[in-house]
Write a structure and sequence with these properties.
The chain is 40% helix and 17% strand. It is of the alpha/beta class and 295 residues long. The protein has two domains: 86 residues, 3-Layer(aba) Sandwich (Rossmann fold), CATH 3.40.50.10860; 134 residues, NAD(P)-binding Rossmann-like Domain (Rossmann fold, 3-Layer(aba) Sandwich). The radius of gyration is 19 Å and the shape is globular. The protein starts with a strand and ends with a helix. Bound molecules: NADP nicotinamide-adenine-dinucleotide phosphate. NADP nicotinamide-adenine-dinucleotide phosphate binds next to helix 10.
Length: 295
Amino acid sequence: MAAKIISGTEIAKQIREEIKEEVKNLKEKYNVTPGLVTILVGENPASVSYVTGKQKTAKELGFYSVQDNQPADITEEALLTLIDKYNQDPLIHGILVQLPLPKHINENKVLYAINPDKDVDAFHPVNVGKLMIGEANYYPCTPFGIQQMLIRSGVQTDGAEVVVVGRSNIVGKPIAIMMAQKAKGANATVTICHTGTKNLAEHTRRADILIVAAGRPKAITADMVKEGAVVIDVGVNRIGMTSEGKAILCGDVDFDAIKEKASMITPVPGGVGPMTITMLMLNTVKAAKVANGIA
Ligand code: NAP
C-alpha cells in the first residue's frame, strides 16, 4: 500500500495559525510583540532567499521584524559590535545570523557572541549543552520541525528503533539526541550513521523511523528500508533546472520507490523545509515570553 504523505506544508500552516493566535494574545494581554532580527552579510543569492523567506513569515505572523543587511567586507569586530547592539535591544528577542559568513569572519566567534536567550537558532554552546542534558530552552529549528511532524502525524516514537543518517551539528546530532531523550515524541532507541558506518543498509533496514540528512540525492533506496517504516527525508539537493530557470529539487531518499514500502514519508519539497522556518518563529515567540517573564 502506498505510504501516507506527511505534508510539512500543511503542518507548518497549522502551527503558523497557532503562532498568530499567540502573537495576538501576547500583544493584547502583555503589550509584547515578538521581535526578530535577521543579519545578512553580503549578497549570496541562496542566503538572500532564505532571509527574505524568514522576514516574510515573521511579518505575516505579526512580529516586529528587522532585516539588517551588511556589506561582504564588514570586519569581524564591526559584526560583533552589531550583535552586541541587538543583544541590548529590548525590542529584539531573537537574533539570527544567516550562514555562511565570508571567509575572513570566524563564524563560531560570531554565533557565540549572541546572547543565548536570544539564540533562536539554538547554535550557541549553552543551548547545545542544555539540549544534551534535556533542559533545552530552544531546539534547533530543523530537528524541532522533524519532531513536531512525527508528533502531529501520530507516529509512535516510544521504544521505536530510530536510525539517523548524518551527524551534522545542525541536523543529525541534535535530532538523534532529541529522539533519545526521555520525553514526549522521543524515548526511542537511536542509532547514528555516517560515512564511517560499515554496512549502512543493515542499520537502515532495522529502522521503524528513518531520518535521513546526508545531502546525497537518493542515497537511500527501497531495499534499505523496512516495510511499514516512517521515512523523514531532510535532504535538499538541486539536481537541475527547469526551462523556466527554477531549481529541480530532490531529497536524500528514492521517494517514488520508497513510498510503496513505507507507512509514512515526507516529500521534497514540501516536507521538512517548510517546518524549519516555522520553528524559528516558534522559538522567537518563546524568547519574547522568556524576556518578559511570561510562562
Ligand atoms: P552535512 O553537514 O553535509 O552532513 C551530512 C552528513 O551525512 C555527514 O555527517 C556525513 O557523514 C553523512 N553522510 C553523507 N553521505 C553519507 C552516506 N553516503 N552514508 C552515510 N552518511 C553519509 O549536511 P547537513 O547540514 O546535515 O544537511 C543534510 C541535508 O539536509 C542537506 O541536503 C541539506 O541541504 C539538508 N537540510 C535541509 C534543511 C531543511 O530545512 N529542509 C535544513 C538543514 C539541512 P560524515 O560526518 O562522515 O561526513
